[in-house]
Records
---
Amino acid sequence: MKQLKILEFALAALLRRKFKNFAILAMFSFTVAILSSVLSLTHALKEETAYILQDVPDLIVQRVIGGRHDLIPLQYRKEVAAIRGVTGVEPRYWGYYYDALTRANYTLIGTGGTTANLTLLDGHLPAESGQSAIGLGVAEMRGSTQSGELILVNSKNTGVLYEVSGIFRSESRLLTNDLVVLTDDDIIRFFGYPDGQATDLVVTVPNSNEIQTVAAKIKKILPDTRPITKRELIRTYDMVFNWRSGMMLTVFSAAVIAFCIIAWDKATGISGEEKQEIGILKAVGWDTADVLALKFWEGLSLSLLSLLTGLILSYIHIALFNGVILSSVIRGWSVLFPGFQIEPSFPLYHIWLMTFCTIVPYVASTVIPTWKTAITDPDSVMRG
Amino acid sequence: MFKAKLFLCLVAFELFLLTVLQWRSGIVAAADHTLLIEKRELAAQMKLTDLALWTEARYTRHPSQTDFFSAFQDSPGSPDHFPAGSIMAPPSQFHRQ
């Protein structure tokens, strides 16, 4: 009951300086909202990517010449297929295309002979030469939804017309937004790839324990190649969306600096008005412990309210506004950006992290200078 | 004690709202599970290795397939050309375990 009365007094004290405290509340909530949005967004992306990439090829074998990815000869297939544990080696044909018309980059990829019915594709994959399946980003940019056609300029600078046989649904944007899927032969012709060469090889190794050994053997037999394992691939995305990445540091440091300025301002001294208030409280019989409890409740009520408001705001930002503030930061120079359709979630450790990074330092920076004042003689405090 | 009670009610309301939002996320995530399976199937069938997030350069479009030097296209240590380079972390090959 005593603590409740102190809380009542603390809230009254906060309301006496309402403009300053509302400004702190707003800034504090905004900082928490941004940090939490970043953490939540990257966590959701990381989780989704880790799940989606579970069934990617076990091994991708690239040829590297002069430190650059080069086309791989198809005869390498035999040598890779001969390794024990390998059950399949398939060539992949793909490449990049800069569309001068829309100033966007597309990724052109061959079907690899797949004719599977994909639930995320409206229509079908190209079954014959001259057909294409395209991502929604490409379709929207080129107006292919209406025309049903796509014209691209090949390596001989000749326009090639493709019939759009399928458009990937918007739910698959994260994977297919910039994709143009053609038959393998069309890709070879379009890019003018030399005969008997592919972009890379996809190797199937059913026993996941053998992937690393197979990769080492490939590197030994074919020293000019670079095998990329599924584990490395998934780990890359784990690193890309790691909260320690550049964006995190940039956003985080800006928020932390802003927060530190407030904490520093509070920790380096309390205002004359506050000192006088503490002096009066001591003079009317408050203990040092009561004064400290008062300041503790002041700090806690402001920071707890800011934390909760910030978390709710970040949820609304990600869920309802698709992370509009962050997506412009994450977008970079991508002309074709898939946008986010991500459901935010706050793992418990994120909430703990936010709590310890915000409430603890704020309460400490409120209580510590008060303690210095509270142990001083009330008379000298009131006289300043 | 009006202010204290009002404050405690506000905190309780925000906690309740946060719990409801978390609960909603769980439901939406469970409903989206079929979609995730479809995306996984798509990636497997098309042998896709990367996300179509950053399309401005090959090392941002396919971070997992990039060569060791693509971040330094002009010379070793040259500044990155694209903002995405500062958004994404370096390829995992640069991190020794």
---
Amino acid sequence: MSGTFNKRLAIVWLVLTAMTLAYIWLDHSADEDGVLKASTVVTVAAIVIALVKVRIIFREFMEVRHAPVLLRRLTDAWVVLMAAFLLGSYFIGSALVG
Amino acid sequence: MTNLQEDSSTKADRHATRFVPGQPDMWVFVLFESLLFTGYFSVYLVGRIQNRELYLQSQAALDLRFGVFNTIALLLSSWAIARCVQASREGAYRDALRDAFLTIGFGVAFLVSKVLEWGKEIRLGNTFTSNEFFQHFFFLTSIHLLHLLIGFIVMGVAVYQLRSPARRSQQLVETCATYWHTVDFLWVLIFALLYVVR
């Protein structure tokens, strides 16, 4: 029993670490020939990847996957809420500043 | 899952039936804290947009390697505390205790690396008063580090619980773990926003 679960936790850690390493690639892809550039694609990708990681941590590490439906819905709603706040302030801010 | 349930009744039941990990109060705290941080992240993102060039130039002075190392260290600590919770649930308290110390160890690795990173930035002349980006950087990383330091006290509680057969409250161990994971996922967001977002 514990063997199965420990293996699952190890896989979860591997996935989260791979997603973290993907940021290195994302970071390199952002700048052209050493010139720093603002990028909507990189910004949105960075935020979305982070939120997917947060949801994985909720469900797997924090055992929300075994939790009652209320906690599962609440944590999912929170991820959506954070996405709305972060992407919302980025896009609305960009639209206002122009 | 069904076979396992037939084999070991109580342990499998625990997994089959739905349960809230730890005390519900801690979950209220987790949701409140993430909302508070999200509000601050929004302020940071809007600040970025108003002054893109300054943020880009300042961000370039950060060392992504520190960020990646720190993230992986905290992910390892989260992995260890998740193992600790499962071991303790199964009554394997020696394993649980080892995993709890492992969690603390990875937390210390994060702490040391963070202090080294601050030292490096300060030597480069990037301090709290340098500009808006570094104000956000030092504020967010130090408020997060404060959460990590509280996390060490929380882990002390978990170790205290696991040490003596007279205590060993599974609910308390889970509550401690929930707090620790929160320190982890808040860092996941801070890392993406400070180091990677353009």
